[in-house]
Amino acid sequence: MDKLIIAEIVKQVIAELRRSVPSQHVLTLFSGASTGFVAGMEAIKRMTGQGHRVTVVFTPSAVNIITEEHARNAGATEIIMPDQWVDAPSLAQGNDLVLVPTLSINTTARLALGLMDNLITTLVMGSLLAGKPVIAIRDGADPYGKGGEIFNAQDGVATILKDKMKHNLESLATFGIELVDEPDFLAAVEARLLGVHLGATPPTPTPAQASQPTLPVSIPAPNGGTPFITQNDLLMLSLVPPFPCRRGPGLPRWPRIPSNGLD
Questions:
Q1: From residue 113, how far is each of 80, 165, 203, 235, 236 by CA, in Å?
Q2: What does the alpha-carbon distance between residue 56 and residue 87 come to, in Å, rounded to a whole number?
Q3: Structure-model confidence comparison of residues 148 and 246, the more confident one
Q4: Which CATH superfamily, name and number, covers 23-203?
Q5: How many Å apart are CA 22 and CA 131, to the nearest integer?
Q6: Is the pTM of this model over 0.85?
């Protein structure tokens, strides 16, 4: 069957699935990393376009990087500022999904210790205790990736420190947080909203693994036959209009803002 026909059928099936999914309440928590900001704003835009209710929560550092205006322009239903009092247990219990697009090194360390010492960590931990799914972009908290680049991390320098930070990320995965790379975030969110889990969180790559090229999502068949199509392939086919994007089916062109990597 022609690939264009297959793609069209898949898009129609996913559109039908979207129509059958009830409106959900999604908490989108922004901490101090800048990596993940674009994907987070696009996720808000698409979720509210589907009729889901999105509550955005900022840490003090995040609100200076992202700003309330960005969240409002993306369509956030409710925005909770750092100095605003919130009934955290009720908010954690009342959500259907928690997203952490800009997970920072500092917030990762606090979560790895099991701390509930600010609103973001309380909502993440409380949601996990309540059995709610949590998806976070790992890139900004990865000392061997974007998180290290922010501080101009050098190969062979502070290796013990970087390994400790990497271990913190691995701890979050053992708690049940679904850690994804930034390019996979929208598909992971879409899957969860449709009631599908794309799979277990893969391990954080070591520096040697990080230098290797990423394998394609589709798995080629032997002897040049028809390739297998994965769940991720099917979901990504759905990431096209009716959701308007500033740059077609890709992500909108948002400003790139540096981060100090804090909360």
A1: 25, 12, 19, 34, 35
A2: 14
A3: 148
A4: Flavin prenyltransferase-like (3.40.50.1950)
A5: 19
A6: no
